[in-house]
Write a structure and sequence with these properties.
Elements (H helix, E strand, L loop, with lengths): L31 E8 L10 E9 L17 E3 L10 H6 L1 E6 L2 E4 L3 H8 L10 E6 L5 E11 L11 E11 L22 E3 L7 H5 L6 H6 L9 E5 L28
């Protein structure tokens, strides 16, 4: 999944960031991504949480992990089990975040390959990439979790002694028709991939980010899928399949899938 950061004004999320956040049009696992979270400011002397826009490494490393080696495999957490999985349950209870993005990339696969993905088995190479984005041009607010990990091999004052990492929560892909579907190809998100990032509607942002909310049942209720028909998808160049490619041209809509990429 590729996640180009949103172009939305930081003020829409709360506190102004202390550094400029440039766009990234081809985000890959372990890269830094912009994340919105509610947390007390460091060394501020005030325990009240403040909404912040931070840069976190994509690929969650649990606080108890012996090393960060598995971070690239922890980019997604399933909404159905996130509250009980050892790697995520502590963060689910206290360290929730939102990853704002213009949208995400996903690759169309044939039915046989999709069946393997549902079963959690090894997948064959991807096919035609699509960009999925809100149909009204708004920000795609992905539910996420964040965590802190201490590298015990480094001294306290080392700049890499602490890692701040995050993961995107996913849910079953919508089977209802897209708000805007391509002329050729998939008609729903489920036609593209069996899973999708869980999109939080604005009415759930505050509750999801509030660290004072700890009731598991209330938090799980916030992970209900959004209303259907909010998203559009369109084919983009296969250049996005190479993480070395990065630029606004990757978001350009193609009139049709590239020849030879479908099934």
């Amino acid at each position: 999944m590729g996640v180009p950061p949103a172009r939305a004004e930081p003020r829409a999320w709360g506190r102004e960031p202390e550094e400029a956040l440039g766009p990234d049009y081809n985000v890959a696992p372990t890269k830094e991504v912009p994340v919105v979270l509610d947390r007390p400011l460091k060394d501020a002397g005030d325990p009240r949480p403040v909404r912040q826009l931070r840069r976190l490494r994509w690929g969650l490393v649990p606080s108890w992990a012996k090393s960060p080696d598995g971070a690239a495999r922890m980019i997604n957490a399933r909404a159905e089990t996130v509250h009980e999985k050892p790697a995520y349950r502590r963060a689910f209870a206290a360290r929730r975040c939102i990853l704002p993005a213009d949208g995400y990339y996903e690759w169309v696969t044939g039915k046989e390959e999709r069946d393997l993905e549902v079963e959690g088995r090894r997948k064959r190479p991807r096919k035609q990439p699509y960009f999925v984005t809100p149909a009204d041009g708004s920000v795609f607010a992905m539910a996420g979790l964040y965590e802190f990990w201490r590298d015990r091999t480094l001294p306290d004052d080392h700049p890499r002694a602490w890692w701040a990492t995050c993961t995107v929560i996913t849910t079953e892909a919508e089977q209802t028709p897209l708000a805007v579907a391509p002329a050729e190809g998939p008609r729903s998100l489920a036609d593209i991939h069996p899973r999708m990032p869980l999109m939080l509607t604005p009415d759930r942002w505050d509750a999801w980010l509030d660290p004072a909310r700890t009731d598991p049942d209330e938090l799980r209720a916030l992970l209900a899928p959004p209303p259907p028909g909010l998203l559009r998808a369109y084919p983009v160049s296969t250049a996005v399949s190479n993480v070395r490619n990065n630029g606004p041209e990757l978001l350009k809509e193609l009139p049709a899938p590239e020849e030879g990429t479908l099934f």
